Amino acid sequence: MASKIIFIASIALLAYTYVGYSALVFLLSRFFARPVVKADITPNVSVIIAAYNEERDIARKIENTLALDYPKEKLEIIVASDCSTDGTDAIVRGFADRGVILHRRPERIGKSVAQNQAMRFSKGSVLVFSDATTMYERDTLRKIVRSFADPEVGCVAGRLVYVSGADAAVGKGCRSYWGYEVFLKECESRLGSLIGVSGCLYAVRRSSYARIALDMSSDFVIATEIHLLGMRTVYDPEAISTENTNKRGKDEFRMRVRVIEQTMSALGRYREVLNPLRHGIYAVQMVSHKVMRYSAPLFMCALFVSNLVLINESEFYLLTFLAQSLFYLAAFAGWMCSRAGLKIGMLALPYYFALANFASVVAFAKFMRGEAHVTWEPLRETSPTQGG
Fold first, then answer.
1. Which of 54, 83, 225, 359 is the most buried (most CB within 10 A)?
2. Would the pTM count as exceeding 0.85?
3. Is the pLDDT at 158 greater than 80, yes or no?
């Protein structure tokens, strides 16, 4: 009897995590939508680009930012170098005559601190945070600042489009996963507020910006800080940026472990927002979108083990166990093909799903051991000119 209860509960929790919540937030956003007031405004904007050893991409990023369709007299570009040890700083200094400012930290202490200190020296009433490998559409700044015409909006997240030059399994899986995340962002924004933003494109009112602790993931924490100020974080799909996906599974895995671990730390620090009696729908979103998502490996293990115990009970349990086994075999086959450099087609989704959930397990173990990722390592493939 206990095995059946665990089996049913595990299915119900997984169904809610991946299907039920998305259906719930979609329906609520349709019936209780909160429109955002937008206007073609052009406030003073400071674009802060976080960089650590980005000599391969930083010049292209700066040229992309300089070419944006935004009044030059209202645009400030700052590169926050977190004590880069390659040629990043020298390249940035080469743009000084075009108004680009280098803010270099004398010691490496992390992305959030680098951004915070650069913010102190910035002048814009709106701060736009970006990564060195993220490219913006020409009208991205004009689009992302429109929502600040609404006094309730404290932060605006832009749309990140993942691209991949190679037919990599991890790239396919990442794009599928991100498509699901974008759907949730659109619904959560219409309903009230996002619970997180993409770190490569988000804008914040200077008056609403809170300094983020150095061990926190700024793209997750900023939405909670804005919520605690009584304001909204909204999504503008017309403010577009592009980013290459990781081509190697191990790089994607390391990135996801780091992000999930930092998010778990943030959830511990901001656990007050998990209380729906005090924070309403925002708490429901946080529990559903983050807590339950990171708990999915536990539900999956419980489902598999309880199903194994029940396998001789009926044909139904035999079929569900076979279905689970085939799914995990598909994920394993996808991993093997990816390592061998083979195209895996439909295996990409189970492979990435398993990778993301295993990353949650590893991140939780690191979190429980008290490990923290304060600094960050860009996951870049070595360029041909740098050697291997």
1. 54
2. yes
3. yes
